[in-house]
Design brief:
The protein is α/β, with parallel strands linked by helices. It has a single domain, classed as P-loop containing nucleotide triphosphate hydrolases (Rossmann fold, 3-Layer(aba) Sandwich). The protein is built from twelve helices and seven strands. It has a seven-stranded mixed sheet with strand order 3-4-2-5-1-6-7, sandwiched between helices. α8 links the parallel β6 and β7. α1 crosses α12 and α6 packs parallel to α7. The chain is globular, with a radius of gyration of 17 Å. The structure holds adenosine-5'-diphosphate (ADP) and magnesium ion. The site of magnesium ion has 5 residues, from α1.
Length: 270
Amino acid sequence: MTARIYCFANQKGGVAKTTTAVNLGAYVAASGRRVLLVDTDPQSNATTCLGINPRTLSATLYDVLIEGRAVQEALTLTERLNLDLLPSSTDLAGAEVEMAGLLARERLLARSLATVSDKYDYIFIDEPPSLGLLTINGLTAATHGVIIPVQCEYLALEGLSLLLNTVRQVREILNDRLVIAGVVLTMYDARTNLGQEVVDEVNRFFPKETFQTIIPRNVRLSEAPSHGQTILSYAPMSAGAMAYQALAQEFIQRVEGAHARMPQPSPARS
Ligand code: ADP
Ligand code: MG
């Protein structure tokens, strides 16, 4: 069996791509599935969210993509979480320019992930906030589609046509399996009417793709990264944790048609 590979993309920054990739990954891993998280953002947010300082690493995704190092040499294993990480570093900022001169430059990530794909059930790729070569690599590597986080705010869908165009082009030229596997509504604020309007609009636009689970705005979700923790370990009883757990169950139900057992959160750990 090879992993189902998904990428989390939206060229807008701050829509919760990283928060969703990390915390959905944590709950899918907690349900017993083997998960690899791949950080393709030079800002390394997913890497630091898992408590890893990119400056202490001897090899990262940069070395894999540009220097041809083996993925295993760059993997950071977090057995505690059943979640491995292919970390990023600031070097990646220059990678797009260096990749441009390489053969099959859009497929570098796909080829690298193929070497470890049989060791995982899921590979989640966290993308940078752009539509550059790193994002194209993620879309090309995604065997099971792209998941688009959308923030519940004014003009939520604005600019999404750019991403949809890129997805279409990648499907035509590089990855004919590429589908929109899901749309996640994030940072929902129940106190505003606007939130509900965005939910309705996104559901109209993506009726099949939009997950029913809506991620609320929750301060614990924004605190967890500064403690180097996922929401599952930082505040498992919080509304944000409950939402990502529900999203993981809905995701697994959609993908596998199976009910996912989750560990019982205990207040002592929050
Ligand atoms: P992206 O990866 O799309 O740039 P992030 O996942 O880094 O977005 O999220 C942007 C910021 O919003 C981060 O500071 C994150 O902690 C915060 N955040 C994300 N989701 C939520 C939420 N549901 N409630 C509150 N803060 C959130
Ligand atoms: Mg991010």
